[in-house]
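Supplementary Methods. Inverse-folding protocol.

Structures were first reduced to a C-alpha cell string of length 167. This string, shown here, constituted the complete conditioning input.
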C-alpha cells in the first residue's frame, strides 16, 4: 500500500490502494451501462423478465448509493469543479431515469415516482423527470396528482425561463 511514489524527483499518487467516492461511483455507474442502454433512457421496450429487472435495479441502486452528492460544494464558480460537478450530476440523473424506467416497466410505479422526484428536487426544470413522474403517478391511478405536477412545472417554466414545456 503506497499512496505516494517518487520518480525522477517528482512525487505523485501511487497507482493502487486509493479509493475515492467519485471513482467508486464511476465504476458502479459503468457497470449499469448495459442495463441503461437496453432501457433506452426512461422506458424499457417491454416488461423485463423479473430476474433481469431485479439485477438491473440492484446494480443501479448500488451506483446511486455511491453517489456522494454535489462535488465540492464549497468551491462555487470554479470552472473545472463546475464542469465535473455537472458531469457527475448528469450521470446521477441518467441512473435515476434508468432506474425509474425499469421500475415503471416492472410495475413498481412508486419507485419510479421516487426516482423522478429525486431529480426534480435537484433540478426543478428537468422535463424528462417530470414525464416519468407523470407516467408513474398515472400508473398508480393518481391522475389528478400527475396533472397538478404538470401544471406546477409549466408555471415554473413560464416564471423562470419565460417558455413552455415540450410536448
Amino acid at each position: 500500500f503506497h499512496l505516494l511514489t517518487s520518480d525522477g524527483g517528482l512525487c505523485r499518487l501511487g497507482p493502487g490502494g486509493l479509493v475515492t467516492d467519485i471513482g467508486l461511483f464511476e465504476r458502479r455507474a459503468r457497470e449499469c451501462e448495459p442495463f441503461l442502454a437496453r432501457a433506452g433512457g426512461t422506458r424499457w421496450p417491454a416488461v423485463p423478465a423479473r430476474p433481469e429487472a431485479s439485477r438491473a435495479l440492484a446494480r443501479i441502486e448500488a451506483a446511486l448509493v455511491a453517489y456522494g452528492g454535489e462535488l465540492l460544494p464549497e468551491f462555487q464558480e470554479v470552472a473545472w469543479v463546475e464542469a465535473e460537478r455537472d458531469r457527475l450530476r448528469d450521470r446521477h440523473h441518467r441512473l435515476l431515469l434508468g432506474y425509474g424506467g425499469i421500475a415503471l416497466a416492472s410495475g413498481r410505479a412508486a419507485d419510479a415516482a421516487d426516482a423522478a422526484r429525486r431529480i426534480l428536487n435537484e433540478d426543478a426544470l428537468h422535463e424528462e423527470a417530470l414525464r416519468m413522474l407523470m407516467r408513474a403517478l398515472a400508473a398508480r391511478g393518481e391522475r389528478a396528482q400527475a396533472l397538478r405536477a404538470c401544471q406546477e412545472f409549466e408555471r415554473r417554466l413560464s416564471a423562470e425561463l419565460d417558455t413552455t414545456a415540450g410536448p
